[in-house]
């Protein structure tokens, strides 16, 4: 656990970058620092590896004051990832990743093996090992940055806007990959971002900083969305708070209807009263949507519209299900089980009736 005890940082010009910040970042979890520009997030992060020394207060890692270790020694146990990756331009990818192992005196072969293993872990092809950073895309460079931070298997990782410099699609991929990696590695991670969506997606715990280095709220993503501490936090979370809350509502108790689900062998005439029918195969896997009116013979002979997005019942959130409903030609979300077989369908209005965490229903404050 990383503990901030009354940490204040005042710069010579008088700027207060951190104002009496007390906070705990639990072991094996992701704590996200989010907030306005200049709110002190980066400063707070850097007090952990002593790139910034507090004016008063202290920072502890597992109960030990970080000032008790020499900075170089301290930093070997702390991975650090920054925006634009910050790779050494004249070193190959594998040498970049092996930076800390080399510093620790590992032999070349072992360090190289570690670098190649990590490349795979972060989703990079081993054939890129001999390339230089400029020969990689921005997203690939960020992956190298993450691999480099993980090289000596540090228990703590500090990540300062690591995914901010890439486009939204690559960014989402990096976030997903990062969460998968964390599922295996269980590092104690402190992650800085100015993007509330990223904070909600990645954080086990979110700390919101306001200008002047004030920590205004520390909560789980669910509680932050449901109960923002004040107008500043509510404003920062933004207008889509109600919709975001649905990300934490489970689809496991959802009542799904079988009415519109038919096998291809069924006669279209039997479904003539329905506006839309979801045609399924013998294993109940969805084949597509059709309007049965006017179709002769079986539903298998009808022209099908694509199923579009589905949601995994119990595994996906109501937000995912709602998205599936909106994108479906029938306005119905298709719920499937782990094998991809259709459990049933739900209309958008059914989804909005699902109770969400910490409130009686989805809010709309936009
Ligand atoms: N070395 C420094 N000397 C003087 N002032 C500094 C220094 N570093 C940061 N500051 C000031 O401290 C405040 C907090 O900066 P910090 O970089 O921690 O904010 P941040 O929340 O990370 O912002 P951003 O999201 O823009 O990166 C800012 O007002 C900044 O100008």
Automatic annotation (TrEMBL):
Q: What is its EC number?
A: 7.6.2.9
Under the heading InterPro entries, the entry gives: AAA+_ATPase (IPR003593), ABC_transporter-like_ATP-bd (IPR003439), ABC_transporter-like_CS (IPR017871), P-loop_NTPase (IPR027417)
Q: Does the keyword Transport apply?
A: yes
- State the superkingdom: Bacteria
| Gene3D superfamilies given in the database record | P-loop containing nucleotide triphosphate hydrolases
Top-level class of the enzyme under EC nomenclature: translocase
In this chain the ABC transporter domain maps to 2-237
Q: Does the keyword ATP-binding apply?
A: yes
Q: Which UniProt keywords apply?
A: ATP-binding, Nucleotide-binding, Transport
One Pfam annotation, family name?
A: ABC_tran
What molecular functions are annotated in GO for this chain? ABC-type quaternary ammonium compound transporting activity; ATP binding; ATP hydrolysis activity
The record's family statement is: Belongs to the ABC transporter superfamily.
The protein's name: ABC-type quaternary amine transporter
| Lineage of source species | Bacteria, Bacillati, Actinomycetota, Actinomycetes, Streptosporangiales
